[in-house]
Fold these 4 entries.
Entry 1:
Amino acid sequence: MIDFGRMITAMVTPFNDQGNIDWDQTASLIDYLVEEQRSDSLVVSGTTGESPTLTDEEKLELFAFAVKHAAGRCKIIAGTGSNDTAHSVNLTREAEKCGVDGILLVAPYYNKPNQEGLFRHFETIAAVTSLPVILYNVPSRTVVSLSVDTTLRLARIPNIVATKECAPLDQIAMIAAQAPDHFKVYSGDDASALPAMAVGAYGVISVASHLAGRSIKEMVVQFFDNGNVNEASRLHRELLPLFKVLFECPNPVAVKYALNETGHPVGSVRLPLVPPNEQEAQRIRSFL
């Protein structure tokens, strides 16, 4: 089974001045995230990549482009989740044809399915692909939450191999303690990554790794894995203000602004998201 690594970056989608995908900057961003920030894998067209405002055609083009440009230097994970099971089934099938290494499926938003509906949604999508599938539980965005029991039930499906959890630490701990050996838990929140690892998480699917990937990797692999908890904690405390400021605006507003400010012209965001106001922009700049 594929190991997606300890630090996965949820990659932003670069846009040009006309709001279209900027392919040159997409290539540059992939190079930067892999070579300079040491990302093990990239999520393409996840919610940080503004998947709600990307067309299916744009998503498939992004998947194929990322696979070709990464050229085996990292794993490419396609964000194909939505709140329409049939739509996600079709997009997942097409994504597999693009050569991606895995699939990320966000919990269906707005419909508010119950736990049985959530189980059947993920089960149905996983059944149409041979690729490894990562669940994405983010209740603050979707208004529904995968329970521990439902997650463990899904973990028994062979190609559902991980979950990205933006959930309380006790939920992460319970999943990690009871899941099959092949099933990994990733923190979906940079600020909780180190505490999550302390209770059994395997790694982090990160936004801040666009800016501090080397330090996050050092915190996780060099220090925490080797039992140097004091140094891991020191780095976590040092990075915490950055983790927090990146989510004071709706994601990915702040991280795109920060990338632009640090010499990586990824452009702005698509409506209904808007750029940071001056006060927000000043605060972001103060942490760079």
Entry 2:
Amino acid sequence: MARIVKVGAAQLGPIQRSDSRESVVRRLLALLREAHGMACDVVVFPELALTTFFPRWYMEDQAEVDSFYEREMPGPVTRLLFEEAARLGIGFYLGYAELTQEEGRTRRFNTSILVDRTGKIVGKYRKIHLPGHVEHEPWRRFQHLEKRYFETGNLGFNVTRAYGGILGMCICNDRRWPETYRVMGLQGVEMIMLGYNTPVHNPPAPVHDNLSNFHNQLVMQSGAYQNGTWVVGVAKAGCEEGCDMIGNSSIIAPSGEIVGACTTLEDELAVARCDLDLCNSFKNTLFNFAVHRQPEHYRMIVERKGSILPPE
């Protein structure tokens, strides 16, 4: 019997610095209701979906920086989204900036959560592959200060049993690294949800600018295929505070084929009917890790070169 999860990729257009969280949540609610009208089980929103992409500015006032973070989830503004999701019986993935107290200190992460049909948080992920830089680099047209404003995620690439399958999460730059998909693939992941905010312009390597859309699709499609998993990648797109960001929100099958996609740089919903059992034709044949993967030989090669791989 097929295990169907109907997914909505809920792309957002730009969020300007002056836009209130209340106005953004109204946009999320509109997409959530549209997805419900199309019988979706779960909706995937982008990275940092509640605010503009604030790491593009160098700020020295910590209070100003912290105004972009959520101190609880759900919070006073986001609670309405959880309540409406529970009322409609539809779940969601949401990316946001998280400020929390852990280990006796204040910590800040680029975070995503998975919420089930009852409005309950069933999974949390904190971004591991932080791009950009730490100090002010005034030569850039815009900054990319994720390494300044966030700590490296400390929750690992775990999977969650939800929606009748095995689901995983990652965020933006994580999608460019094969180990992101492989660590979850080794846990049997059947759908990876990821949000991103990706500028068209790459200040350190502008020669890559015209390849932004191609590289975005390349890594998500190859990650899906090589691990026999669905991948749902969702953008915050368009011109945000003078910075052009790519769209290309896509729903990708375990074959690597794109089966659903957004075509604008605005708020838009793409929907696909995802059969999680399609993963089996890849996980049990070409990418049967237990039969064909040879990690002991990788270790031998690397150790000969004087490096040590982490344990399996």
Entry 3:
Amino acid sequence: MPTFQVTNATELQSALGRAVGGDTILLAAGDYGSLNLNNKKFTAPVTVKALSATGQVHFDGITVSNSSYLTFKGLDLGRGLSVAEPEYTKLNTVQNSANIRFVDVSIHGSLDNDPTNDGIGFYVTDSKNVYVHNAKFTELFRGALFQRVDGVGLYNSSFEGIRSDGANFAGNDHVVIRGNTFTDFNRYGTDHADAIQFWNTGQTKGQSDITISDNVFIQTVAGKGAQGIFMSDNETYKFRDVTIENNLMFSNDDYHGISVNNAENLRIANNTITSASGDDKLFWILAESSTNVTVVNNVTDRLILNSNLTNLVSQGNITLESGAYRNLLPNLVNPHTPVDLIAPGVGYQAPTQGPLSSAASSFLSGMLGGNASQSHASTLIPNALDDLADTGGRYAQQLSVAPLPEPIYDVYQPAPNWAGLTDHWIAHP
């Protein structure tokens, strides 16, 4: 298969014009500006990749439209926004395309520690089979948004310093979110922050065949609390065939660890969802208005299974609310490593797919105040992601982008008597 070597944007466009399925285009280090690809339809993957791992290949952004079988590998993608650009500006976009992969990429905003001048890192709409593997999302308004995509894969990627949500999903089918890490969100003003959020508002269908597994979400920055996985449907479409399994979440200052509303065939199993001892907002697992629900072997601050669930199986779950089981996680006041958040035999367990890399180990340990030489360095890390926020009650601002009209939730009202399980969100148009 031919290989093209290019050194600038003009040569890259020429190589793309001559390439056929199976070819590889190698990019010398440099700044290639913005890349717009339209009607590049191949029958086998064409790979656009960095020539060397030591020389940065930078794009301000990549737009792929009406194209197929493209793989982008080893690239640096992103920029800060100009004063005139709104926060919902999309830096990298895939639309009306199929079989597109982004591998070993860095997707970022300004990288100036200012969360007010960053956009949406990665936006995919009306496409099929789009996969992101080993990406690093850093300092963005939102990390990634997927809308009306059949076949989504988000694997082994990291989200750090995100201002709002890590990854959003609307109107998708066949979604796998596995082995990702979400850390130290950087909320600004009235932002909400969620690791992973699904919604159906503004869509014409629900979402189905969803697996969220082996992810680690740890938020330690005081006053910047973020939530975990949130799936809420105010329409009648439902979330169908949903598995949320073996995820580890630790966050203070927010309630929603895992929250699912209006699902059919829902399994929530083997997750650990907790916050520091003394946190006044218990990090909970909540399921409501759903059918065929299995909730088993989870460890969580609080478990809320509302009375409007049908065909419910709940067993083997441990709640830390009463304090009786707190000794399972003795270092919750000040955890130092991910191992401090793992209870033997119940809840999240280090996956068996492969060893936790020294880089990931050091990153998570440093975030928790430990170091990479501690015992967790040889443990195993997951392979995949959401909700709305809280300011005393439930609050979320609407995403200001027409294709993804996120519902606004205001004034979350916990039930005065938990036994009644009647708490809900008051939705505002």
Entry 4:
Amino acid sequence: MNKAPKIGLVSLGCPKALVDSERILTTLRAQGYEFSRDYAGADLVIVNTCGFIDSAKAESLDAIGEAITENGKVIVTGCLGVEEDLIRKTHPKVLTVTGPHQYEQVVEAVHETCPPVHDPFVDLVPEQGLKLTPKHYSYLKISEGCSNRCSFCIIPAIRGDLVSRPVASVLYEAERLVKAGTKELLVISQDTSAYGQDIKYASTPFHGRQVKAKFFDLCAELGELGAWVRLHYVYPYPHVDAAIELMADNKILPYLDIPFQHASPTILKAMRRPANTEKTLDRINAWRKTCPDLAIRSTFVVGFPAKQMRIFKCCLIGLKKPRLIGLAALNMSR
């Protein structure tokens, strides 16, 4: 049986930082990691820093230097992490630097240096996590929320604005799924082609190299895992063009799920969606020249309510016993 990696942690700063440290430790312990009270017994050291005042910065830099001297493998997180240039200039041997509250990035950085050891005879959860889909395919969610404001959609009100996952987190999850038997990865989010915009396409380490959180880069990396990759909910933005070349090279499936929703510029404007259908058609034609086998799946809103929706609501309010009013009666197809 492989020995579980041991992690050391130095926690500086206020009680809020201490809670951050507790969350990191809780996640790592749940994944089978053990902990060391000294540098010598640790396979890796995490330093949770403070950057509130100059003396706190100096203390944090000293703690990082001590950890590097005594152990050599150091991940820095916490408030001073926002000054990555300062940290790396002072201590260039630091493995990874993340800011406050970035628990997931810290855990992924630990995985990069000291991969978790899965024991099927002891662990209650399989390495790939619990799934509700058959073994041969898995959904891979790359972000939450949406920053678009389509007039018919309630998603931003429910799930908030776009929040992209770090690309290394997505890729490691995809890798675990493929190793566990997944043959097809279905990439999903509310706006897949907007992936990474909110985090300014930040790079994270994946198997020793930095990968940017960009739509194309994500597609290219997923295409190397040996599974089918199917893209859902992609808008026809110009930067999607490069992904079509991956399809032509058989790296990912020649398939796009694009929610066009309508073809009328007037209705599209009322929907608060891009209204230049001619440019969209030109883009699709160009895609098919690059990849003739491209299949496109879409959805359309038939009878977009617009002003009629207010009439519909008024009619329901005026009824003592609400009943369904037919769409034809309201002439909502106009």
